[in-house]
Hints:
Rossmann fold
Amino acid sequence: xxxxxxxxxxxxxxxxxxxxxxxxxxxxxxxxxxxxxxxxxxxxxxxxxxxxxxxxxxxxxxxxxxxxxxxxxxxxxxxxxxxxxxxxxxxxxxxxxxxxxxxxxxxxxxxxxxxxxxxxxxxxxxxxxxxxxxxxxxxxxxxxxxxxxxxxxxxxxxxxxxxxxxxxxxxxxxxxxxxxxxxxxxxxxxxxxxxxxxxxxxxxxxxxxxxxxxxxxxxxxxxxxxxxxxxxxxxxxxxxxxxxxxxxxxxxxxxxxxxxxxxxxxxxxxxxxxxxxxxxxxxxxxxxxxxxxxxxxxxxxxxxxxxxxxxxxxxxxxxxxxxxxxxxxxxxxxxxxxxxxxxxxxxxxxxxxxxxxxxxxxxxxxxxxxxxxxxxxxxxxxxxxxxxxxxxxxxxxxxxxxxxxxxxxxxxxxxxxxxxxxxxxxxxxxxxxxxxxxxxxxxxxxxxxxxxxxxxxxxxxxxxxxxxxxxxxxxxx
Length: 477
């Protein structure tokens, strides 16, 4: 059986310049585990040859080792590959070297011994920065196109979404957008339309899960007078109305078996018959679909046609849930705050740090849509110059501490100390250590996923692990 893999954007390529085979192997394994493509070389001269023949989004270069001159490589990159981002890994931990590297254009400066999560965090930020530069360059080169509006994010997965939008916009390929409810599938569909050659034509959106089967069929394909009891006149369907433009079919998994058959023909031939008519109608329409269910699981369960699946899944754009892009929450919250502040005529400067922490700690089952509603509510209720936890919904305001289901029941109960009253820091240390230990266990030791679940960045997690003696020898490069 053919494994139905979606088309995805290639992971950023990271060139590792490191003469120590053990060190470069550890780097490559750490990055490959997170989806990065790595190329290895042992010195600056060979790195220059590789960069002349093939670009890399990120270069991680040793400096201060024999054959590795990070400053020389940086100079070459700035002159010949300005779109490439360079990270130094230095033997010399002096402040002067770090300042010199950053002033000459290095993106980051890491010291040995090199921690795997520090490396991963730096590469991820560098890749995000590189993709933002590429997106800006494409936008400057396509001024006639509309920008990717109302889609906010600096997460690496969102950068790949932006790149996919740009790459598929001008094609006729059918696009399938997947993701949980509230992740922004409609916004992505509109962005594809706005950046395509059809942007001056109609964008028609239909929610397949909101209408009964018979109504949905007439909504999509139209009907002629007398087709059924209430058909007192002809009606033009959404496919005909979108002729020359784009039609977006949301919740496509809700389509009945009969409707799936008709959709298959439309996608193959761009033609159909209105309900009650024998006259074939042809429409030049770009089709974008979305599903909050796993369509392949629906195929295996017999609820979705296999041939239709392959027809709709030409290009897949997967949208991550908000809980997997915690770093984007302040960006999104600020974006919504500006919109609702202006709409309500309120002078609100921003969010308190505690309010932001509550939002980072919350799981957001409703994703970006829930966050948008949360910010709107907070703006309406806010009585001061900034949003405080009390302005947030109770479910969000109560999310001050990440408390996983798997956490031991005992550590969160402060044990009495008959000799003296424990300080707050002492009382919280035990529970915090156990929560971190449990998060790491559940996520297989991945600091990245544990940090996202805990609502903190990996640097903070690393420091807390070090504080509580949770760093294992196998977790350091």
